[in-house]
Every structure is written in structure tokens, then in C-alpha cells.
Write a structure and sequence with these properties.
Strand order of the largest sheet: 4-2-1-5
Number of helices: 6
Structural class: alpha/beta
Oligomer: single chain
């Protein structure tokens, strides 16, 4: 018989300050926290950085916006333009969302925010040292900057 681990769940979320984090590394760390049963809130999603050339990110985003259904655009993929929803979808991709019920439950414990809301400002925020950018910020593109180019209006 397998030994079951007990996961301590609390109503107080783990608050992650996403400023100057690389998007993929941040998403994988947050997904790991969610699968362990924690409630996670990610703040400052507009300040998350994407590595790679700026022109390439803009081209990929514009190419993705062109994809839709021939029959009705409502049936095609949803094109998110807000930084918090883009990050939530990126984290969802790292969870077993469509394969297991635990993936859907994990995703429901996730909250992403633009900026930092009042009720979360008083909580202590953590950062992942391995996910923080190593070079200057000018070598990266922020998700907020990319979203403004593809149609996000604050």
C-alpha cells in the first residue's frame, strides 16, 4: 500500500511578486506550488520578462492573432491580450489541466493580477531566485509592453 502525503492547505495564499522574472521559469515554479496544493497569487504580471528578440515575440503574437475559425471566430482559439490572463494560460499549460481533475482544481487556486491589489499588499511576497533575470532589463521584453502592441488598453 502506498503511503499518502498530507498537504497542508491554508486560506492565505502564497504571493509571488513577478517583477523581473522570466516567464517560463516563473510559470513552472508557480505550477509546482499549485500541484502541491497551495493557493498562489501572482502580482505585477505586466512586469514579467520574455527572453529572446523583441521582434520575434511581436511577430509570433501577431501571427497567433490571425488564427481563427473559418466558420465563426467564436469557435477559434481565444486570443488573450491582458498580461494577467496570458500568464494564467501559460501556467495552465504546465498543469495537467485536461488530463486530470487535480489539474483543474490546481488552476482554480491560482490568481493573477496586474499591479498589486489592496488586500494582497499587506502579505509578504516571495520571489524565485532561479527565475529572476540575470542581464539588464533592456535585453528582455516585458509582457506588458508586448500586450500594448497587440491591443491591450489599460
Amino acid at each position: 500500500m502506498a503511503k499518502q502525503e498530507t498537504v497542508v492547505r491554508t486560506d492565505i495564499p502564497i504571493v509571488v511578486d513577478a517583477t523581473n522574472h522570466i516567464a517560463g521559469r516563473l510559470a513552472s515554479n508557480v505550477a509546482k506550488l499549485l500541484t502541491q496544493g497551495n493557493r498562489v497569487s501572482v502580482v505585477n504580471c505586466e512586469k514579467i520578462m520574455l527572453s529572446g528578440t523583441r521582434a520575434n515575440h511581436i511577430k509570433e503574437a501577431r501571427d497567433f492573432l490571425k488564427i481563427n475559425s473559418v466558420i465563426h471566430p467564436k469557435h477559434g482559439p481565444v486570443h488573450y491580450r491582458r498580461p494577467d490572463t496570458i500568464m494564467a494560460k501559460m501556467i495552465r499549460g504546465m498543469l495537467p489541466y485536461g488530463k486530470k481533475p487535480s489539474g483543474k482544481e490546481s488552476h482554480q487556486r491560482l490568481r493573477t493580477y496586474i499591479g498589486s491589489p489592496k488586500e494582497i499588499k499587506s502579505l509578504t511576497k516571495i520571489q524565485f531566485e532561479k527565475a529572476i533575470i540575470k542581464k539588464t532589463a533592456s535585453n528582455y521584453t516585458s509582457i506588458g509592453e508586448l500586450c500594448r502592441i497587440i491591443g491591450w488598453t489599460e
